[in-house]
Amino acid sequence: MDYNTINNSMQKEIADIKEYIERYLKSDIELIEKVSRYIVDAPSKKIRPILVAIIGKALNLEKDKSYKLAVIIEFIHTATLLHDDVVDLSGKRRGKDTVNKVWGNEASVLVGDFLYSRSFEIMVELHDMEIMKILSHATNTIAKGEVLQLMCVDQVETNVEQYIKVIQYKTATLFEALCECTAVLSNCDYEVRKNLAMYGRNIGLAFQISDDVLDYTAESNDQIGKNIGDDLSGGKITLPFIYAFQNCTKSQKEILKNIIQKRKIEDFAILRDIIFETDSLTLTKDKAKEFVVLAKNNLKVIDNSEVVSLLDFLAEFSINRKK
Hints:
The chain has helices at about 5-10, 10-25, 30-40, 45-60, 65-90, 100-105, 105-125, 130-150, 160-185, 190-215, 220-225, 230-235, 240-245, 250-260, 270-275, 280-300, 305-320; strands spanning about 90-95, 95. It is mostly helical. The chain has a two-stranded antiparallel ribbon.
């Protein structure tokens, strides 16, 4: 099985979700619609809405509710990307120039706000206070994760636990929320709900760790849809760097401190060499695998073997993808 197999098996659901996205993107303000479509229509795996659709299908969730939840999740995620690119001064996203590069920081922030607020309008349509509670908490936690990451910028002494907390808040929270919300809307019992939530958290953690590996293994910007070395340019301390700093020589520690302080992209090759020399990518991949194992264990509460197979594959895909 590969990711295209999942895409092919979910073509009807993906097409339906796209129609819902189109409906909720409509605005009487031309710039809002133009900017929103620019990023939402950009090439991406759409793993979050597909995950909603797969779990919703498994739990016999009413399609209207499933698709609305998928749109909510996609809009929240897209809003965070728009805001992230302003904070990080990014120039590439999903293989295209970022919104802030094309239209400026003001448009990027404001359209991000529009997508956030539109997602809450859709939440109201679901008529479920528990969903509001989960998703409002999730958006707040994502914001806290952004601040935590900002506090770790240039901090070479950042440890594994601090890093995991940042990515749990910033990335895994939305995966956790979408899985739990799907279970809530399907009226699942507590055990299924909590295990699905933890499945989401665990693959979210694995997914982000894998993303941080790709920053050092990608052969081109097109492969990862952004500029190689963006993490260095932003002073971000990711897991490969943390392991490298923990395991390198005293002289290499000084080199790494200097590289992070200066943030020069021409130093990226030196940084990458130290990361490879300290076998930090292997350690990072091993950490991601730990979360995949946990995610698979969470699936024991689901009876549908076909769905378990799809979700099991998505857990593996989170660490084996090449882009």
